[in-house]
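Table 4 source record.
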Amino acid sequence: MIVKSGAPSNTEVISSFVATVTERDLPPEVVDTARLCLADWAAVCVGAHKEPAARTVHAVSRTWSASGSSTMMLGGRSNASVAALCNGTLAHCLDFDDTYVSANTHASAPLWAAALALGEEINATRMALLMAFIAGFEVTARVGYGLGEAVTGRGWHATGAFGRIGSAAACASLLQLNETRVAHSLGAAATQVSGLVGSFGTMSKPFHAGKAAMDGVISAQLAAADFEASTHLLEPGQSLDGALIQDRAATIRPADFSTWELLNNSFKPYAACHLGHAAIDAARELGRTMTNEDRKALHRIDIYVGELAHQVIGGKNGVPTTPLEAKFDLKYCVALAMHGSRLSADDFHDTPDPAGSTVSLARSVHIHPSKECGYTSARIEAEFIDGSVRTGYVSVAKGHPGNPMSWNDMWQKFQALVEPVASARTEEIFEVIRQFGSRGETASPLVGLLSRAMQKQAGRP
């Protein structure tokens, strides 16, 4: 139980928000943004249907013979926790999903996977699912706000940490847990945080998102069955943050739900690590001013990015040997951008060619950390053989608040990822998502639409 004395604890504030979110009047723009997150989630799931990481997790999960009513999007049904694992992994395979920058967390991948899987199991309405997702996102934001760079810089994957807690909050909302039970759900999730930055560029990174979704479902279900966990792990400077950031350079902030952090979410126009998007924007803009002859005359490209971007994706040496590695090699991504690539999922299907023009150009790219640049900004300097220099600067990369993606932008991304699979049904699926929650339907029709499209494309009945 929660022992109350004096002012409410951080856990009490968070738990109260989750337990009462269904009683709130949600601003229309918040609900609309939740739908935008769902559209993005669905698109990257469908686009990843051939990814080996997702297929391996799905194949192994089928051997467990776990029964249930929740759809695994690559085929079959299972219980909610297994479906959440499979679909959460699928959602992060392309590394094309959204990012809450203030926590450096891919929130939608685990949150929607967990909410939709559990929602199918309990036959939740779509509006209940939207509220649950919003609750989970706001909790993710409150626990992770300001910690993302510090956590990532110390080797932890923020999605594996904060996405797990947010998923538990979303599922606790769906199960209509009271404040005390929510607190135990959050505690059960917090004690399972995991995921290492050292796994970036391998199948383990998307697995982190899937496991976060799975553990969120399990944590809420355990709490609903009177499981007792620690209820002090989310207090500032006391446990979770102290374990992840042992030098106490940053701590969890006291929770305040007076604003909607979902409105500060960011979406990806490129299928590569979000830390590199500002540099990609800068390279694409500069590349548009160049002819093929100009590119042949390039001598050196200097990219200035934030310190975290340099640490995680900027210091790669050699040639990426897999498509996954290529997504986390900023030099390679900049070279793609200079050649005019859209950096879509298709650009990361094949292993980079060591003798190709992109790798050749990447060898002339040099990445520098700059205190003048943050998560959303980057500067580029291109020097030519004749000594001339062209420069460019991006203050806010496309997809971030201040330079957001609209529904029209999302349709372009959605269409590119979904149409090769769903064909003529693509627009229908998109409209289902745009209207999600406006009527009383349950989750099943949407998840079923997506799954059937993948099965048909794969030649399965």
